[in-house]
Amino acid sequence: MSMSQQTSIPQMVTQSRDVLTNPSVPTFERYERRGTFASAAIYVGLAALIAGVLGSVGGLGGIIYNAISALINFFLFTGLVYYIGKQQGGTGTFDEVAYTFSLFIAPLAVIGAAIGLVLGILGSIPFLGIVAGLAGALVAIIILVAQVYFAYLAVQSSMNIVDQGKALITLGGAFLATVLIQIILGMLF
Questions:
Q1: Is-contact 43 34, C-beta < 8 A?
Q2: Confidence category of residue 132, pLDDT binned at 50, 70, 90
Q3: Which of 81-90, 95-104, 178-187 bottoms out in mean pLDDT, i.e. has the lowest?
Q4: For helices 59-87 and 94-123, what crossing angle results, to 10°?
Q5: Most buried among 56, 132, 158, 177, by the most CB within 10 A?
Q6: pTM of the predicted protein model
Q7: If pLDDT is split at 50, 70 and 90, which confidence band does 4 have?
Q8: Which H, E and C letters describe the chain, residue by residue?
């Protein structure tokens, strides 16, 4: 498949299932060239909309705002992974980085929102509120750890960085720069 062809959502869901159930650099390598920046944007945007509907925070305006914010944050982070990865000797393309990261970020966002919805419902039942709250915190930690792990594998694959230290510098630098930019933008707006 050439880099300019769009990958369908069902194909991406199948690829995501493989990435999530068989996490490894070779699994990511299998898919990194099957999609583009545009494919990643559609997939992450759709996942953000679904997660927004499941969370139903702020009505339609909130859902749209959260979806746009998720896309901006996704591309800010993956752009920084690409830029910093290049400084670390990486040879991947931005399409490969964005597409590879979308394969785990999109489904984890939907899974987190679905679990949050269930725990929110359970939390409204007397005596289950505390348990649901603790379970929600545990789920959030598990999803965060999963994202870090998948990101570590994805940066090795998409940027072709085999040195673990350089992969960690790439991810850590991208994370810190993303947080810094978000803080600056938050202060400006």
A1: no
A2: confident
A3: 178-187
A4: 140
A5: 158
A6: 0.90
A7: very low
A8: CCCCCCCCHHHHHHHHHHHHHCCCHHHHHHHCCCCCHHHHHHHHHHHHHHHHHHHCCCHHHHHHHHHHHHHHHHHHHHHHHHHHHHHCCCCCCHHHHHHHHHHHHHHHHHHHHHHHHHHHHHHCCCCCHHHHHHHHHHHHHHHHHHHHHHHHHHHHHHCCCCCHHHHHHHHHHHHHHHHHHHHHHHHHC
Q: Is residue 100 within 8 Å of residue 85, measured between CB atoms? A: no
Locate 61 and state its tokens. 């305006």
| Residue 83 CB coordination number (10 Å) | 16
Q: What is the pLDDT of residue 15?
A: 97
How many of the other CB atoms lie within 10 Å of CB of 48? 25
Q: Taking 50 as the threshold, does the pLDDT of residue 154 lie above it? A: yes
Burial class (CB in 10 A: 0-12, 13-18, 19+), 71: middle
Structural tokens at position 19: 């990435």
The CA-based angle 6-21-2, given to 5 degrees, is 20
Average pLDDT over residues 162-178: 95
How many CB atoms neighbour CB 152 within 10 A? 17
Mean pLDDT of the chain: 91
